[in-house]
Structures are given as C-alpha cells and as structure tokens.
Amino acid sequence: MCESGPVNQDWEDRVAAVWARFDEYPEAQGADFRALIDTLVAELPDDSPLGPFEQACAWDSTGHSDRAVPLYREALARGLSGYRGRRARIQLSSSLRNIGRPEEGVRLLEPELDAPSDELDDAVRACLALCLSSLGRDREGLSLVLGALAPHLPRYQRSMANYARLLVTPEP
Questions:
Q1: Using CA of residue 20, residue 26, residue 32, residue 37, what is the dihedral sign?
Q2: DSSP labels for the chain?
Q3: pLDDT tens digits for 141-152?
Q4: Which of 12, 21, 71, 96 is the residue whose CA sits 20 to 30 A from 167?
Q5: Crossing angle of helices 9-20/30-41, nearest 10°?
Q6: Model confidence pTM above 0.70
Q7: For residues 5 and 48, what is the distance between their CA atoms, to the nearest angstrom?
C-alpha cells in the first residue's frame, strides 16, 4: 500500500487539526487526545499503515514510548514509506532510546544518513546523536550535531563542519 493509501484530503486535514490542538490537552488528558486519533484511525482500512503510525505518534507524544514502539514497527511493516516512513524511523529510534534500546535506534537511523535529503535530515542526525550518546559514543553524536548545525550558521560554516569531521576522523 502506498504511503497515503485510500485517505483523502479531508481525513488528512482532520488529523492535522487534531495535532494542531495537541498542546491544549494537559498530560492528564492524554487518553482524550489518543481517543480522537483512534476515532480518525477507525475510518481507515484495517491494513492501512497510517493507522498504527498515527496511533504510535499519539502514544509517543503522550509519554508512552513503550506503547509506541510496536505500532511504529507495524506501520513500517505494512509499507509506510516516503516522508511518513522516514518520520516513523526517526520517532521509532527515539522511542527505542527512551526504553533503553539505543543500539536498535542507531541501526535504524544510520541508513537514513544516506537517504535522499529532505527537511528531516537534521532530525535524523539529532536523534541519532542522542542514541549514540546513550551508548557512550558522545564524540560521534557531537560530530553529527555540529555537522547538522554548521549550514545554518551565519558564519563559521566551514570551520564548524571541519571540527565536526575531526571529532570522528582526526588528522594524522
């Protein structure tokens, strides 16, 4: 099934509207927020990868990484691809780190470093850096973060990019 499956723009708009109001739900009302997502997911075909993806995002965003992990995996197994597939891999790796399995997060994200570039590149690097840090590989993580930051600086882009590289491949 393709990334968006049989959903239409109305469904997409309603999902976006629920997420736009996320901050209106206090932590104690996470179940209410998840119920709204579940209502929208119920409109999807049973085999849609969007259902478990949206549910995973809802569980994750309400502080339940442990509940999100299997749902992200299910969404990817059902064929979630493209932009949402990349988001799922980023978010799954973060959730894995949160539940004490950062090595799985590293394995999931390292291939994303070579994926076609998009607006999620920096998020890939930031999340991978956190996973690496959780494994005691702070220099590698810092290198990724500095490398991601360098292009956004008004000056010193070349210097910061070189410093990032030298953290993991020192000059002889």
A1: positive
A2: --SSTT--HHHHHHHHHHHHTGGGS-GGGHHHHHHHHHHHHTTS-TT-SHHHHHHHHHHHHTT-HHHHHHHHHHHHHTT--HHHHHHHHHHHHHHHHHTT-HHHHHHHHGGGGGSPP-TTHHHHHHHHHHHHHHTT-HHHHHHHHHHHHGGGSSS-HHHHHHHHHHHHS---
A3: 999 999 999 999
A4: 96
A5: 180
A6: yes
A7: 7
Q: Which structural domains are found in the chain, ordered by start? A: 1-80 (1.25.40), 82-172 (1.25.40)
The phi, psi pair for 37, rounded to 5°, reads -65, -45
- Could you tell me which residues come within 8 angstroms of residue 83 by beta carbon, excluding any fewer than 6 positions away? 3, 118, 120
